[in-house]
Each structure stands twice: as C-alpha cells, then as structure tokens.
Amino acid sequence: MKLIDPPGTSKRELRFSGHPISPGIGIGPVYEATEPALQFSPRKIAAADSAAELARLEEAVATSRRQLQKLKAKLASLPEQSQTEISPLIDAYLHMLGNSRLLRGARARISDGLKAPESAMMEEADAQAEAILALTGSDHEGRVRRAEEVREIARRVLRNLTRLPFRSFADSAPGTILVAEFLRPADAALIRPEKFAGVVTAEGGADGHTAVMLRALGVPAVLGAAGVLEAAQPGTLAIVDGEAGEVILNPSGRSLEAAKERLAARSRTLRALARLQRVPAETTDHVLIDLQANLELPFELPMIAESGAHGIGLMRSEFIFMNRETLPDEDAQTEIYRDIVEAMDGDPVTIRVLDWGSDKEVEALSGYTAGAAESNPALGLRGIRLLLRHPDLFETQLAAIFRAGAAGPVKIMLPMVGFLRECEAAWEIYERVWRRLKRRNVRMAESKPPMGIMIETPAAALAASHLAKHAEFFAIGTNDLTMYTLAADRSLPMGTKLYDPLEPTILRLIYETGVAGHAAKIPVSVCGELASRPEAAPLLVGLGMRQLSMHGAAIPRVKRAIRAVSLRHCREIAAAALAAVDADSVRLLLD
Ligand code: PEP
Ligand code: MG
Question: Which of 183, 285, 323, 436 pairs with 494 at a CA distance of 20 to 30 A?
C-alpha cells in the first residue's frame, strides 16, 4: 500500500502554478490569513423562520461544494505529487458536504433546536470533533487531523454564510508569505508590503482588482494557485515567483539556490533599469510616448516619484472609501487629493471618481445600494451609474478635487461610461458644483479642471466619436473593456483562456477609440493592465497610443521596450495584430 503524508505535513517539495501578478521572488515561511468571517454571535431563531434558515444553510453548503469542485477540477493541472497530496483531502471535504452526519446534525440543530445556521454548523462541528478526539486507539495524530478537517469544512460553510468586509493581517511576522484562499480588493488594500515577502491565493484572476492592488504594492504575488492552501501549513517554507507564476512549498536545497540566483539576477536588472529613470520614453525614430503612473494607494507615491512617471494617469479613488465605516467628507477628501497633487510637484494628477460596485465592495456605502440585490453586479449599477443616482457623493468628490486643484494640475475622470446621457448629466453636476464653490469664494483651481472619461465598455468604444464631444480626454480601461467585450470575467482562472486583452477584437476597439479621439483632437491614453506589459508597448504605440499609464514599477521596463523600436515597426506589428484571428497569433507577433 502506498503511504500518503497527511496534506500539509509533507516535507517533500510541492509546486503550484497560477497567474504571475507582480514580479519579484519572495522566500519565507507561510502565514495563513485568518478569516474574520468566523466571528458571529450565537442566535436563536423563531420556529416560523426555520425553513428559511435551513434554506440559507443549504445555499452555503451548495456554494462550498461548488468551490471545492472547482478546486478539484483545477488540481488536474498540478504536478502529480501535488495532486496526490491534496486530492484525498478535497474528497473528504466533499464527502462531508454530502449527506453526512455533520450536515444532518447541523440541520437538526436548526429545525429542532432553533439555532441560527452559523451556530448550528459550528456547534455540530465542535461536538463531532470532540467525539473524534475522545476515541481511543493508537492513531492519535490521525484523530487530531480528522477533527481539524471537520472544523475546517464547517468554517468553509460558515465563511459562505457570513461575509465580513475585510480581514486583519496584524498578527503576521515580517518576511512571511501570505497564503489565502482569496483576497478581496479591500483585503489587499490592508497589506503592508514591508511585512510580506510574497502573497499567494488559490482564487483570483490576472487583471481583477485584487491583482491591480497587489501590483501596486509591489509584493511578489501569484494568484489562482489551486491547491496551495490545502498543502501549506503556517510556517511551511515557500518560494513565490511572481514573474513565472510559480509557488514552491518545502523547496529542495537546489530549488532554494536557483531562487536565490534569480533574486540576485533581478537586483542587477533593477539597477540597470533604474538608469533609465531620466531618459525619455521615445522610439528609435524619436516619437515621444508619455508614461504616467496609476495610483491605487497613497504610499505608492515615493515609488512613483522614482519611476520617471510624468504625472498620474489614473488615480483610483476607491481606496479613500475602503475599510472604513463612515464616508470621508469634503474636507477629508480635499486633504488626501491635495497631498497627492503636492507630491507630484506640478505633474498632472488624473483623479477617477469613485468606481464603486461589482467586485469593489465599499462597506461605508452599504446604505447607498441601488435597492434590490443585483444578480449580476458587474452588469448592474457601477461607477458613474451609481454616482448619478447618488449625486451627493459625486458632488462632494468633485468639490474636493476642485479645491485640491489649487495645489497643482488635476483632471477628473468618469468610470464605466456607456451612454452619452451620462456624460451630459455629469457635466451638469460639474458646472453646478463649480459655480457653487465660486459663489462661496472657496480657494480652488484657477481654471476648470479637464474632465474626461474611461473607455471601458464596448458601447463607449463604439460611440467614441460622439462621446468625444462631451469629454476632454479618453483613457482606455483595457481590463473592463476586455471583460465586457469578451463576456469573460477579469478574475477568471488562467486555464479558462477566455479573458485576454490581446484578442484582436479588443485591439480593434482600442484602435477605433484612438482614431475617434484624435479626430476630435483630444488626448487618448491606455490605463488598463495591458499598458504595463512591456511586450505590448510597441503594439499599443502602433495602434496610435501616445500616452500609457501603469503601476509605477512597470514604467522602466515599458520605457526600455519603447526605446528599442521604431514607429514604423510598431505600426507594422499593429497592422498585423489587427488582422490576426486570435490572441495566440497576436502573441506570436509580439514574441
Ligand atoms: C480598467 O478597467 O481597465 C481600469 C483601468 O479600471 P479598473 O481596473 O479600476 O476597473
Ligand atoms: Mg475599469
């Protein structure tokens, strides 16, 4: 009989792959992110509610089963050794989510004991875990493990029953590798880069907002590394290669040496790239490309200053609203924007007004929701659609931006525009707020800051020539543009091969938006994640883009790519890419 180590206790090297998110190599012990969702107060329910509460439990169980089945399917792509470690555990979990003693007990506690599902599930799991531990026999370790498995599956159901807004990483030791099933963007915003050597999640896509945040943080990160959570234990030594998208647990001496060599090579490359800070981003035939920075979190500012960026092309203002219970008022917002504008020392700061909705949860705004829960939040009220429904939020933000404009050049950007009427309505509010501040003699920008729009829905790209009459600039958001055009979520796992900004359909929309913008004589930039990929820079230049905005750390590499090509060559690549049949053919061209 083949002996299998209990998952998580093996000392053998295990390899996992996922989306490469932010370059760099991290080596350190695993820190497992704790789930705050496990805090709940025991609650009794009325007999009349027991059917509804039972249904809530069944829904959470069904979600848990779906999660595990998805994980099981993903395991097929892992090396055999990693599969052998994890598969039996997933099967055990799935078994417990079938017609098991655990679920029968939890249901009885709801219908007979009138306990809320959260208490019922945890109490039943604790009772069964205690019973397993009380058994006698020689395999003590096995009993401890089984008891923990029962509690773990109950915790999963509980996580799906109660969803708390964010978790705390306060108890992590410096230099550890954060491993979590998934991170919400608001969770990622709480990560302090100096605390973690790397970040790994089992769920998550390449261009989701969590990925965007992690790139901004500059911590080596791999998302969507299926199976890693089951195999890792707190303290397990891990290597995270954010460039190759690889995670190694219990690395062999050889793997450790190789990782250290790559780390040294990376430091040499970074030193060479730093020398590019002051040279212009121009093609070999002297076409200047304006490289700007995206800002997700204020502490990126020093790094942006060092990156050689000419201003901020996209400041995602969501961070101001996340992880807090009350909304920041006009004064508080003014101060935050002003600090950023001052730090940029005369370079323009493009502030995108709150793009809230879809996967960006903003707790403080929970009272502001559209009403009925949306079954498809990415296709519902998001970005400008929500702001126009709650003009008080929009007005406060506009007023704060106008006031911050006294400290340096600011621009205003509208997210998720799909209809011309949204631009018209936004301008009306803009004028009203400007007049109000003027009347009150408030200190603010001398002239009206330009207001432009994100082109991130197919509708906006196709209507660009009309929208150009109502916008002073365009910024192409390739993340959402790809998601909405291909009907493929930007957080999809890598293996699905559905979400891909290099699809020629997306390139055509970028090109057409550029043509419309240039005809209307307004600047057009790209600020989605595609702009940060050095291999895509010649293509974007060839498609007519002269302004790219990306996370600060990407600027030197993109600059190096631009300085190596001529405009003629870029145009040839773009023409071939526009005529290509799929993203793979485009990738071949870029290679
Ligand atoms: C985009 O969609 O490409 C974009 C830049 O906006 P966000 O990633 O914040 O949705
Ligand atoms: Mg977007």
Answer: 323
Do 395 and 438 fall within a single domain?
A: yes
CB 352 within 8 A of CB 384: no
Which ligand 1 atom minimizes the distance to the CA of 527? 5
Domain end, chosen from 139, 162, 185, is at 162
Q: Please say if the pLDDT value at position 367 is more than 80.
A: no
Residue 370 lies in a domain: no
Are 268 and 141 contained in the same domain? no
Span 511-554, pLDDT tens digits: 999 999 999 999 999 999 999 999 999 999 999 999 999 999 99
Q: Hey, whose CA ends up nearest to atom 6 of ligand 1?
A: 477
Q: How far apart are the first and last CA of the chain?
A: 48
pLDDT tens, position by position, 164-211: 544 567 778 889 999 988 887 777 877 888 889 999 998 888 888 888
Same domain for 464 and 549, yes or no, is yes
Same domain? 317 vs 210:
no
Atom of ligand 1 nearest to the CA of 316: 9
Atom 3 in ligand 1: residue holding the nearest Cα:
477
For the entire predicted model, the pTM comes to 0.75
The parent domain of residue 125 ranges over 47-162
Alpha-carbon distance of 388 to 480, in angstroms, equals 20
Report how far residue 474's alpha carbon sits from residue 21's, in angstroms, rounded to the nearest whole number.
Answer: 26
Residues with Cβ–ion distance below 5 A, ligand 2: 456, 477, 480
Task: Report the CATH number at residue 262.
Answer: 3.50.30.10
Output the CA 417–ligand 2 centroid distance in Å: 10
pLDDT, average across residues 203-224: 87
Q: How many C-beta atoms lie closer than 10 Å to residue 170's C-beta?
A: 9
Are 351 and 287 in a shared domain?
yes
pLDDT score for 406: 97
The encoded tokens of residue 515 equal 């043509």
Residue in 91, 113, 92 with CA at minimum distance from that of residue 105: 113
- In this predicted structure, the answer to whether residue 265 has a pLDDT above a threshold of 70 is yes
